[in-house]
Amino acid sequence: METGQIRLNKVTGEWVIYAPSRRKRPQDFQQSNQALSSDNHSQKNCPFCLQIYKESEKILLEIKDYQQDLWQTKVVANKFPALNFHENPQRNLEGIYMSLSGYGHHEVVIESPDHYQTIATLSIPEIEAIIETYHQRYLKLMKDKEIMMVIIFRNHGKGAGASLRHPHSQIIASNIVPSHRRIQEAEAQRYFDHWGRCVYCDILEFELNEKIRVILENNLFVSFVPYAAEFPCEIWIMPKEHQADFGSITAEEKTAFATILKDSLSRLYYKLNNPDYNYVINTAARYKAEEPQLHWYCQIRPRLTTPAGFELGSGISINPSIPEVDAAFLRE
Amino acid sequence: METGQIRLNKVTGEWVIYAPSRRKRPQDFQQSNQALSSDNHSQKNCPFCLQIYKESEKILLEIKDYQQDLWQTKVVANKFPALNFHENPQRNLEGIYMSLSGYGHHEVVIESPDHYQTIATLSIPEIEAIIETYHQRYLKLMKDKEIMMVIIFRNHGKGAGASLRHPHSQIIASNIVPSHRRIQEAEAQRYFDHWGRCVYCDILEFELNEKIRVILENNLFVSFVPYAAEFPCEIWIMPKEHQADFGSITAEEKTAFATILKDSLSRLYYKLNNPDYNYVINTAARYKAEEPQLHWYCQIRPRLTTPAGFELGSGISINPSIPEVDAAFLRE
């Protein structure tokens, strides 16, 4: 079995994963080959509809709907993992460079037995089961002491990188913390050291007063378009109470989060005709769960524009849509 | 005239540009509308083939081919600028947030009169004229004392964000330096303070010894796949002599750069069947041109994969291709 590798970019401090199970030859990327590739979106070929029932040994978690005697969600190991827990977690020097073995976990959360649903169309109890699944796997994965960070994310639609239509999310647990995350920690730390407060809590308070970027709220969560949204109709969903770590979510908060997540995604679904999107749950890395300046949130990025050379080269986004206009559109 | 704005993301320290000339309403992004939108790739509708001759007052630079009495390259103001030099360059507080007016320059370099060419198919003297054009505009734009940074980039193909087929590059000059760039400066500074050397010079020396990631070289430039490439067949072209600032490029280096740029892009063009790609010239911001730890380079990113939720959320790339394999493929 080929081993995976994570390499450090010496000039940016960023990591890149090279996964053996996803490996392609350069010629596989020829434009004509690309066009021929996968239509894995039909139910006929769907591995989550077909195979999963036969390979029960691979099921890491299953949440049942006791009333209907059916499963609601299942978690399985990703068939083409980016990281693998069979690797020996070890850092290596390669001349002037540093690499790690590709240690980690990569799991798939199958969100429903129904191939044709998505979060916008599922019921709130069904979405609660998904959040419950995230939470149980999050706590389980953080028990692996090698793991520094758990990233829960969802790709919806081909333009957002989804290779299967069947509703699913993914969880990647790794033994590195990206500089991307450390930079946000440092920004929040500086703000806390200056103002003595959590920058995210201050943003929430400001947005709830201003109201112009708020889409909706319930007793425990707020859904809003951030002031400096990078993408048209970008949405952040944030717990109102200070909470650095997604692992600390309470039962009551799970229900409130499921409710606001469904409502936010339904607005995208119906108002923008089911756009492609990604969401990620940004949460504290290991050892940061109790920090007073960090705050978890779910970031939803509709994939309505194509970042080009300027964005890739500068790290500056160009957003053709105005956050206040997006919020009004999504609110009404 | 609506004014543009640049907003600071308070939790990441990154800037986002809101350009009035590019503004859309949220409903314009509905999937069905997207599918109907522009085919601006045909010659019949090409503004660079048609209109440009009538609006000579907008031409900022023109390089002539004296032998053939034709123009080789032209520079015009972007019709839909991301930034605008009519804005008053000014910072504002909006409650807890910071914004800037959208001050800056946004220019288009029309690289050839021929609609159907691209850099891979142009002659070396024609590409030299493009590099000469970049250089002249770079020096000119840096004379505007408000400008902190000039970004020269090229989008090739729809998947790389190009809206027109006619061969062209773009130049954006802004009065902000993105945190993206400051982070690279800090990494290079730390390396210099530890080792007393430029990290980019050390990478070049190491790569020229190792050879496994080098695609080709000439007397003044090296073209290689970086050790931690984020994209399949990513290519960096770097001057062999230490040079922080693209503005310092010599006449001899322009020829050598044109030659290696054509050869590198031709390899992508012929071996991968004309893939979409972006390139950007990463060069020093104002006041950094003489720094011993910075080094300009041209970064070519083929757009063969779709970054998904994990990449957007973590800042960690997943590259299905191995840099050494890519380099061998492009070398042969």
| Count of spatially separate domains of chain A | 2
Class of secondary structure makeup of chain A: alpha+beta
Tell me the overall shape of chain A. globular
Strand content of chain A: 15-25%
Return the average pLDDT of chain A rounded to an integer.
Answer: 92
CATH class type of the largest domain in chain A:
Alpha Beta
Biggest pleated-sheet summary of chain A: 10 strands, antiparallel
Identify the strand order in the major beta sheet of chain A: 3-4-7-9-8-13-14-12-11-10
Q: Round the Cα radius of gyration of chain A to an integer and report it.
A: 20 Å
Protein chains sharing the most extensive interface:
A-B, 100 and 99 residues
Quick structural summary:
2 copies of one chain form a homodimer. Chain A contains 8 helices and 15 strands.
Write structural notes for this entry.
The structure is a homodimer of 332-residue chains. Chain A contains 8 helices and 15 strands. Chain A is of the alpha+beta class. Chain A has 2 domains: 5-23 and 41-176, HIT family, subunit A, CATH 3.30.428; 180-331, 2-Layer Sandwich (HIT family, subunit A), CATH 3.30.428. In chain A, the strands form 2 sheets. A 10-stranded antiparallel β-sheet of chain A has the order 3-4-7-9-8-13-14-12-11-10, sandwiched between helices. Helix content of chain A is 28%, strand content 24%. Chains A and B meet through strand 2, helix 1, strand 8, strand 9 and helix 4 of A and strand 2, helix 1, strand 8, strand 9 and helix 4 of B.
